[in-house]
Amino acid sequence: MILVLVDLIPVLGSRQKTCQTYYLDCLLIGYTNRWMMTDPNAKKLFWFLFAGSRGGMNRISIIELLIEQPYNINQLSDIIKIDYKAIQHHMHVLEKNNLVTKEGEKYGILYFISNYLEVNMGAFREVVDKIHQSKKTK
């Protein structure tokens, strides 16, 4: 086994490494930290936000784009082809539920997926796959 030592300050303070990479590094050196443990209630939250509301599919689209790279609200609106105000509402809901974070000010605000979502990505993928499967069977 290869041991990987991690400098915590750059990892937590920048976007150079994802939380998943950090988690893998910590597993390799046998280090555990409470903030990176998966949340047993994450699936319930994901079901509520993505399947239990009319805007769920738009929120899934937003999250899937943010997984690839950060965007501002205007860029998301152009890509997804829905109203700026609707994207603004979805971003507020996602931020309130700790699935996205924002950096910057006013029109320069960029949105990123949160560490919480990165850690619970398996649960997110599982819920989204089940939602897509149920849409196909209808």
Summarize the structure.
This is Bacterial regulatory protein, arsR family (Modular protein). With 138 residues, the protein is mostly helical.
What does this structure look like?
With 138 residues, the chain is mainly alpha-helical. The chain folds into 2 domains: 1-37, no CATH class; 42-137, Orthogonal Bundle (Arc Repressor Mutant, subunit A), CATH 1.10.10.10. The chain is 60% helix and 6% strand. The chain is built from 8 helices and 2 strands, in the order H-H-H-H-H-H-E-E-H-H. It has helices spanning 8-13, 19-29, 42-51, 56-68, 73-80, 84-96, 115-119, 121-137, and strands at 100-103, 110-113. A two-stranded antiparallel sheet has the order 1-2. A hairpin with a 6-residue loop joins strand 1 and strand 2. The longest helix is centred in the C-terminal third of the chain and has 17 residues, at 121-137. The protein is globular, with a radius of gyration of 16 Å. It starts with 7 loop residues before the first helix and ends with a helix. 20% of the residues are buried. Mean pLDDT is 81; it is low at 1-35. Residues 58-102 form the HTH arsR-type domain. It comes from Candidatus Nitrosocosmicus franklandianus. This is Bacterial regulatory protein, arsR family (Modular protein). It holds the Pfam family HTH_5. GO terms for molecular function: DNA-binding transcription factor activity.
